[in-house]
Amino acid sequence: MKVVPFSSLMRFTIDFLIFWSSGYFVTLKAETPLDVDRMGNAFGEVVQRHGALRTAFSWDEKNGKLLQTVYPTVDFQSSLVDLSQEADPAAKAYELAMIANKEPNFKLNRLPLLNATMFDLGGGEWAFKVIIHHIIIDEASLGIFFYDLFTVYLKGSDSLPPVSLHYSDFSDWLVHTSTRREELRDQQLKYWAETLKDVQPLHLTLAKPSSKELTPITQIDATMDSDVLAEYHKLISDAGVTAFAGFFAAYNVLLFKYSSQQSFVVGTAVTQRRNAPQLVDVIGFFANMLPIKTTIDDDQMFAEYLASFKDSLMESLQNDDVTYEEIVQQGKSSSHGRGYFKHLFAPGGVNLDMISSLEAGQMYAKSILPLPNGEEQYEFLLTVHTKTGQVVLRFDNFLYSEETAKQFLDAYIGLVGTLGRDPHVKIRDVSAVSVAEHDRLVNELASYTDTPIPEHCLHQLVEEQALRKPRLAAVEFDADSLTYAELNSTANRIARSLIQQGVGSESVVALCFDRGIQQILAILAVLKAGGTFLPLDPDDPTLRKELMIVDCKAKVLLTTSSHSRDFEKSIASKVLVSTSLFFIIQVPIDHDGSRLHISMTPAM
User: Fold this and answer.
1) Interacting residues of 151 by C-beta distance below 8 A, sequence separation 6+
2) What gap in Å lies between CA 497 and CA 493, rounded to an integer?
C-alpha cells in the first residue's frame, strides 16, 4: 500500500472539473458469442493493472492534508444485466446507465471508485457502462481503459506490456517539485490577473430552449469530409500551428460570429504533462483547465488571426502551473468571481482509434457515448477528433434546442472548409451559416416572391377592427384583457409620447417586456409612431441587452418598472446619452392600475 499527499493538480478537480464526464457507454457487435466470465475477469485485471483505479482518499487531521492511498489489490466485480427481451434493449441500457451515472454513490475513502456493467442486448449486441470518479481519471484515460479491457479479453493480460509508471509516481513528482512550482505561482497568477481583467461573459444569439425533454447535457456529432479535413490540416501545417490551436481558432471565429464580441474567454483542458512518453499509457488525471482569452478583429484575415492566436495560446500554456481554482479564487474580489467561461473546446476526447482498432477480434464498436451528469455546467463543449474529423458538440438543452445545436455544429464544419480553402479571407466576410442552411434560407425566401404584399399594415388593421367591433376582446393574457377600442386608444397615447420624443420613420425603439398585454401595446405604439421595434429578452444578461441597444442605435427604450431597474446603472445608458435620448417617463394604461414605462429620461 502506498500513501502520498493529494496533489494540488488533483485538488481543483473536485470543485472545478465536475463537467468532465466520469462515465462512458459503449455498444458493440460481437460476431462470436461473448464469454461473460472472461470479460468480467478482464475488468478485474484492468483495475489491478492501474494504480489510479485502486485509489482511495482520506483526511490527515494532524497535517491538515488529504492523502491519496493506492492499495495493492482491490476486489472488483462487474455486473451483468440481461435486456435481450426488452422491446428496445439499447435504449433501456442507456437509460439504466444514465441513472447509475447520476447517482454512482462513490465515497472517496472507500474502494473502488468505479463500477462497470455489461448489458446483453441480444442478437450478439452488447453494451458496457463504466463509471469512474472524475478525481482519478481524465477523458483520455478512458480510452486507455477500454483499450486495455478489450485487449485483455481478446488476447490475454500477457499481451500488454507491464505498466512502468503509475499515477502515484506522477503525484510523487508533483510533491517533490512543489517548491519550484510555488516559486512560479505568484508570477503566473499575476499573468492571469492581467490577462483576464477586462473579459466579459460570452453570450450567443442562438439561445433557444429545447421544445422536448432531453438530458440536461445533450450530445450530437458529425464528421468532416476527408478532403476538407486534409485541406485544413495542410493550412495549419503550413502556418506552423498545432492541430489543437488550429481547430480551436476556428471555434473562436464561429463564437465571434454568433456573439459579435471581439474579446472573450473559452475554457480548455490541457494535458501537457501526459505528452511525456512514460505517461502515454498511464491512467490518471493529468488535465488542467485554463481560461484562454482571445481577441478577434473582423478586419483581420484568418491567417493573421491564426498566427496571433497561436502566440497568445502558447503564452497561456506557459503559465499552466497554477490551477483554474487558484485563478478563479484570485478573481473573486472582482466581478469575475463567478468563473470565466461557459463555452469549452477539447481536442480528441476519448481515443476512438484505440477502441475501434480491435475489430480483428470480431468485435465492432457501434457507438461510444459519454454519460453526462447533472453537475455539468456549460453551454457548449466542442470536441474535435483532429485525426478522424469527428466533431462532437455537447450542449445545455435548457438554453439551446437540438436544431439550434445542429445548426452550430454544421456551421463549424462549414467554417473549417471555408477557411481551409482560403485562409486569407477576412473574418468579416466569413459566413457563419453552413452551405445547407444557406440553401434552405435562399429557397425559403424565394418561395415568398409570389406572396401578395398586404394593402394595410398591422396597426391599421387594428384601427379598422376598433371601428367595426370596439367592444370585442382583442387581447387576453391570464386574467387580463383589452377590447379593440381599449387596445387602440391606449396604443395611440403611447405612440403620441414616442413621436414627441422624435420617434418616426427609421427610428429604432427597444422593447423589454415579459409576455403579456403590455408587450402587445408597446409593439402597436411603435408601429403607429412609424418606428421599428427591437425586442429584448428580459431574461438575457443586462450586458447583452445593453449591447443590442447600442448596436441598433435605439432612440428609446420601452419597458416596465420592474425591468427598468436593470438599466439604471448600466454602461449602455451612459453610452446612449451621447447618441440618443434615453429617458424614463410613466404612461398610464388605465387598466388595473398597471403602468407602462417609456424610457426617455437619462438613467444616470
Assistant:
1) 159, 160, 358
2) 7
Phi, psi of 362 (to 5 degrees): 60, 35
- Separation of alpha carbons 559 and 599, rounded Å: 7
For residue 129, give the H/E element and its range: strand 125-132
DSSP 454-468: PSS-HHHHHHHHHHH
In the predicted model, what is the mean pLDDT of residues 341-349? 84
Residue 390 neighbours by CB under 8 Å, 6+ apart: 221, 222, 223, 224, 352, 384
Please confirm whether the linkage preceding 112 is cis (ω < 30° from 0). Answer: yes
pLDDT of residue 591: 43
Say how far apart CA 296 and CA 499 lie, in whole Å: 39
Contact 432, 259 (CB under 8 A): no
Q: How far apart are CA 12 and CA 196, in angstroms?
A: 19
Distance CA 206, CA 192 (A): 30
Read off the pLDDT of residues 353-410 as tens digits, 9 standing for 90 and up. 555 555 555 777 777 777 766 556 788 999 898 888 889 898 887 788 888 899 999 9
Tell me which of 145 and 20 has the higher pLDDT: 145
Q: Do the bridges between strand 532-536 and strand 508-512 make them parallel or antiparallel, or are there none, so unpaired? A: parallel
Measured distance CA(416)–CA(294) in Å, rounded: 18
User: H or E element: which one contains 151?
Assistant: helix 139-155
Q: Amino acid identity of 177?
A: T
Q: Which amino acid is at 176?
A: H
Residue 156: strand, helix, or coil:
coil
Q: Lowest-pLDDT range, 56-65, 348-357, 377-386, 480-489?
A: 348-357
Question: Cα dist. 532→504, 511, 523, 551 in Å?
Answer: 9, 10, 9, 14
Residue holding cell 447583452? 544
Buried-state track 393-411, b at ≥16 Cβ within 10 A, e below 16: bbbbbebbbeebbbbbbbb
Comparing C-alpha atoms, which of 484, 493, 459, 509 is closest to residue 595? 493
- Residue 344's DSSP bridge partners are 267, 381
Q: Which band of pLDDT confidence, cut at 50, 70 and 90, is reported for residue 419?
A: very high
Strand partners, 433: none
Task: Report which residue type is found at 118.
Answer: M
Give the pLDDT band (50/70/90) at residue 127.
very high
**Residue carrying C-alpha cell 488533483:** 10
Q: Which one-letter amino acid corresponds to residue 586?
A: Q
What residue type is assigned to position 183 of the chain?
E
Highest mean pLDDT, choosing among 134-138, 221-225, 566-570? 221-225
471 closest CA partner among 460, 482, 461, 457: 482
Q: Are 434 and 413 in contact (CB under 8 A)?
A: yes
Query: Domains along the chain?
Result: 2-169 (3.30.559.10), 196-358+371-444 (3.30.559.30), 458-599 (3.40.50.980)
